[in-house]
Write a structure and sequence with these properties.
Helices cover 24% and strands 31% of the residues. It is built from 5 helices and 12 strands. A hairpin with a 2-residue loop joins strand 4 and strand 5. The protein is globular, with a radius of gyration of 22 Å. Helix 2 packs antiparallel against helix 3 (56-72). A 6-stranded antiparallel β-sheet has the order 1-12-2-8-9-10.
């Protein structure tokens, strides 16, 4: 009986000590992990800084800190949240990884039209894949050409993927007639045959397939070797995209 009482006392003491660690300190600890390049597993919209963290011991420690913070604290004390959109323009995200089982996350970009399009606009989006050594081994690329044709909003595009040291796969010149303005979400899911998915403002999802490519099996091999991924949004200086549309992104794990 005395041993049982002692065990219960130790348990209560452990709980008290755990509760005594303030959430402010937990948030500070987690933010320190981000500053050192930790790619979060729960708060996936938080930005890692600098070079990606690669030491497994440090990653395990930061993963544990992230889990404890998410379970024990009000996450409002964290500067970033997992379900928020982050603005992005002519920029590259931090690298996400190491990826468990090569599960590359989906990158989702929300386009919001700010004023009527009356000019030709160019925007390119890439999701880039890296092996354990940080070497790029493949990438997707979706190029948008928005313009007004005969008084109507028109979106033309190329969709493609590249495999380093091998052939790429590229579509012909496409017309995305389901996009009638610059208000939509674009999901790049590199692990799916429907690699590019567009959700229009009425909630309808339109898929752009890439499994027809002759070297699609080689793309699957690239995915099996992927340890890190990031996304790049790019436009030329001569394209006035920023005057017409804002872009935000978030990341969803698979």
């Amino acid at each position: 009986m005395n041993m049982l009482r002692l065990s219960l006392s130790v348990l209560v003491l452990a709980i008290v000590l755990e509760a005594g660690i303030s959430c402010k300190k937990r948030a500070k600890k987690f933010n320190k992990c981000l500053e050192n390049g930790y790619s979060p597993k729960i708060f996936t919209n938080c930005q890692a800084e600098g070079e990606a963290m690669t030491v497994k011991r440090k990653i395990k420690k930061c993963t544990r800190a992230e889990k404890k913070f998410s379970k024990l604290c009000d996450t409002d004390s964290l500067e970033c949240q997992s379900n928020e959109w982050t603005p992005i323009f002519n920029a590259t995200t931090s690298k996400f990884g190491p990826l468990e089982g090569s599960k590359v996350p989906d990158f989702i970009v929300k386009f919001t039209q700010e004023k009527e399009v009356n000019n030709s606009l160019y925007y390119s989006q890439e999701v880039r894949l890296y092996n354990a050594a940080g070497e790029r081994i493949g990438s997707t690329n979706f190029i948008q050409y928005a313009k007004i044709k005969e008084g109507q909003f028109t979106m033309n595009a190329y969709k493609r993927y590249y495999i380093e040291g091998a052939n790429s796969c590229q579509s012909g010149y496409l017309t995305l007639d389901y996009l009638t303005d610059y208000n939509f979400e674009m999901r790049t899911s590199v692990t799916q045959a429907d690699m590019f998915q567009f959700t229009t403002s009425d909630g309808v999802v339109h898929n752009e397939d890439m499994s027809y490519c002759n070297n699609y099996s080689a793309w699957q091999d690239v995915l099996s070797r992927t340890e890190y991924a990031d996304m790049r949004m790019y436009t030329t200086r001569s394209s006035d995209v920023a005057d017409y549309v804002t872009t935000e992104y978030k990341v969803e794990e698979n």
